[in-house]
């Protein structure tokens, strides 16, 4: 047995003695697949190592990072970005190494929410308030807040969130960061301007029994908010007063009428005396009848006497022609002055009795004569010679010149403001002596003064001779016209010279089936095409090119297949517009959204962008139709809680017992939710108060608010935690109390 053992030992020795030791191959170089890496926090990059030579004996890779708080590397070369900064990742093999310079950045951090310190704001006209927007997360890449108002006529907002009240009304201020928005409802109340005084237009009034008189109250200042007044009479059986300040005299006596402002009870008074006097039974005008004046500026004294003498009068003096005479003064005695040559009527009327008197006043003319000096005469009388169609202005001089107004039109023969001629068929003459030749002939014109004024006349012959005046040209008002089928246009032909003997115009169309024309130049479009309208007069002609287009049919109505619509965020819905009539020329429909942050629309396709409401408008021609769209989330994410302020007492930061806080839940999900309960959590201790049952349903697109009364020892900066159900699941949403900004 020992032999066997020795043999085994010998054999083993021989084997180990004969085995040759392998040669080691060293690593000559190491490289990475990328020398640098730019990463965003949370990303990973896989590094690959290349070893040379490929048959190196030691291929064990050792990885390391110079700053593991920035980037780490696993045993397989997987680099993970941890935080912003720079780190060097090293791979070492057989004493050789390679590096990758890693740069880690934060990347883009989207805004997750934006809230306002005030969600309901009341201001007085002219006041302002600064809204503060809080954007989350704190490290959001772009925390820029854009401010806007839904009605700048009610309240404006600047880039810093400063809200300024303009005038009474409601509006909403929106703060937007990224794609998130927050809303503050603003109520602007009217600035009250107090009344300072009131005045009446009369401090005392005398009126006759049965008459009325209007008092006018002036409330100061002019821009006072409440300018309403009340009226009162101390003796309503003597004088009554209406709500408009109208006094009515009931019986003789005295009374005090008082006006009182509703704001401030300021007063003003008027002493009223009511008296009775008998009416006049007869009026007499003293100063002469039929007043004749020899010159301008002559004076007459006129007065009125009555029966009985002691009666009440309300006299009104008038002159029928104020250019002839004027009245100076009022009452029973007045002065009359003549201001021109001519005749007028003076009237005095008693408004109280209804009686009146009238008298004539006259300033007479002295002389007149013709001033024509044409060099022509007929039987020793001056003569004017004109052709047919020619005009001539006669000049008859009167002494004085302004006496022309007294000539009458009631003389024998043919009279035109004093002009009389024996044969009116040869020419025409107007009131100013402008004659125009009508047909050839000789006639006599006379200018006469009525006999009771001054006897006499002046004569002039007019000789109308024939003369043919040829047409030199004809022009149309338009050289070309574009019409739609069924439309019309009247062309105006101008024939030159103006005194051409025959200015008759004839009209024709080159294609009456396209455009026809009547003998008054009225062109009517009949069907599509072109035509030439020609006007001819005395061998001259002018033309107008007419282009007739198809009749334009306007849109009369547009309707949508839906008036209300609910769309999920990220989803689409389609509206179909129907334009009438079917053969309208242009049925193009344009689409707009009143709130593109809630939904956009293109060619009737609505895309939900964010929760909210918008109005989609479809317009064709001058007609439009609308659809109200509610955009909701198809998940519980569309539900959130909100703090609405309250009435509270705070001592050392602690809300005292009895304070009332308003919290609510807004439902922008796709379903009706049920709010089960609410619990307040103390912001300092973290302890929860009693769970308060609610059991209220909130339909999609609406909200509910509850007032919570603080009990016990009070609470610090509480958070309201609501529990609600959505599609069979139970969820929570929270709203944190915001401390009021009391400006201390």
Work out the number of β strands. 74
Helix content: under 10%
Major sheet summary line: 6 strands, mixed
Distance between the termini: 110 Å
Q: Report the sheet-strand fraction.
A: over 45%
What's the total helix number?
1
Kindly report the spatial arrangement of strands forming the biggest sheet: 37-38-46-45-42-41
The overall pLDDT, averaged over residues, is 84
Computed over alpha carbons, the radius of gyration is 53 Å
Low-pLDDT stretches are 1-20, 365-370, 398-419, 449-456
Shape: flat
Classify the secondary structure makeup into a structural class. mainly beta
Secondary structure elements and their pairing?
Elements (H helix, E strand, L loop, with lengths): L1 H17 L10 E4 L3 E5 L3 E3 L2 E4 L8 E5 L5 E3 L4 E4 L3 E9 L2 E10 L7 E4 L3 E5 L3 E3 L2 E4 L9 E4 L5 E3 L4 E4 L3 E9 L2 E10 L7 E4 L3 E5 L3 E3 L2 E4 L8 E5 L5 E3 L4 E4 L3 E9 L5 E9 L6 E5 L4 E3 L5 E9 L7 E5 L5 E4 L4 E6 L3 E9 L5 E8 L3 E4 L6 E2 L2 E7 L3 E3 L2 E4 L14 E3 L2 E3 L5 E3 L4 E4 L3 E8 L8 E9 L7 E4 L3 E5 L3 E3 L2 E4 L9 E4 L5 E3 L4 E4 L3 E9 L2 E10 L7 E4 L3 E5 L3 E3 L2 E4 L9 E4 L5 E4 L2 E4 L3 E9 L2 E10 L6 E9 L2 E2 L2 E2 L4 E8 L5 E9 L10 E7 L3 E8 L5 E2 L2 E8 L2 E8 L8
Parallel strand pairs: 2-9, 11-18, 20-27, 29-35, 38-46, 48-55, 57-64
Antiparallel strand pairs: 1-4, 3-7, 5-8, 6-7, 8-9, 10-13, 12-16, 14-17, 15-16, 17-18, 19-22, 21-25, 23-26, 24-25, 26-27, 28-30, 30-33, 31-34, 32-33, 34-35, 36-40, 37-38, 39-44, 41-42, 42-45, 43-44, 45-46, 47-50, 49-53, 51-54, 52-53, 54-55, 56-59, 58-62, 60-63, 61-62, 63-64, 65-68, 66-67, 67-72, ...
